[in-house]
Amino acid sequence: MKRTLNTCLAVLLVVVPTAFAEWALVPLVELLKKTDVIVVARLTAVRERTKKGVDYGSGTLSVTEVIRGGAKTGDKLRLEWSNSCELVCPRVEHGPYEGKTVIWLLQRSTNGAVRADYPGRVLDLKSRGVLDALLKK
After folding, report:
1. Could you read off the pLDDT of 8-47 as tens digits, one per residue?
2. Largest Cα–Cα distance in the chain?
3. What distance in Å separates the CA atoms of residue 62 and residue 99, rounded to the nearest whole number?
4. I need a surface site. Which of 22, 42, 77, 106 has the fewest CB within 10 A?
5. Quick check: 136 and 130 in contact, CB under 8 A?
6. pTM (2 decimals)?
């Protein structure tokens, strides 16, 4: 009995810490190197659906300012994201930004949509000074 309990505790010590994943920290300067478009935009028309084990999300970014890249003020950009249904954490979730105006560090997809597949690709407007300083380097 004692041996079984010790074995169970040993398994828990190995399994539990690895059951919770989190995003690896990617510095903003590194994200900027792989960013096609940087805009200030408001996310609207968020839709989410599940198909064949994948959660898909999409929405419209209404651009109010272009900081860098090939976009224009007034453009409507289609934002897309996806996650495996079985992935609890970490996940790309943009639904909470619906109705909010924030800074988006976007990558263009081959289908014409844009993606922001890392939490650091969505910045609060208060981060503008830091972003501008990095862009000047």
Report:
1. 334 334 433 434 445 567 788 998 999 999 999 999 999 9
2. 69
3. 10
4. 22
5. no
6. 0.77
The conformation of residue 90, written as its DSSP 8-state character, comes to S
Say if CB 114 and CB 77 are below 8 A apart.
Answer: yes
- How does the average pLDDT of the chain come out, rounded? 81
Q: What is the pLDDT of residue 5?
A: 40
Please write down the HEC assignment for all residues of 7-62: HHHHHHHHHHHHHCCCCCCCCHHHHHHCCCEEEEEEEEEEEEEEECCEEEEEEEEE
| 97: exposed, middle or buried (Cβ count in 10 Å: 0-12, 13-18, 19+) | buried
Tokens matching residue 129: 């000074």
Q: Using an 8 Å Cβ cutoff, are 71 and 39 in contact? A: yes
> What are the b/e assignments for 28-63, b being 16+ CB within 10 Å?
eeebbeebebbbbbbbeebeeeeeeeebebbbbbbb
Q: Per residue in 90-102, pLDDT tens?
A: 666 777 889 999 9
Q: What's the pLDDT score for residue 45?
A: 96
The region, left, alpha or beta by phi > 0 then psi within -120 to 50, assigned to residue 126 is alpha
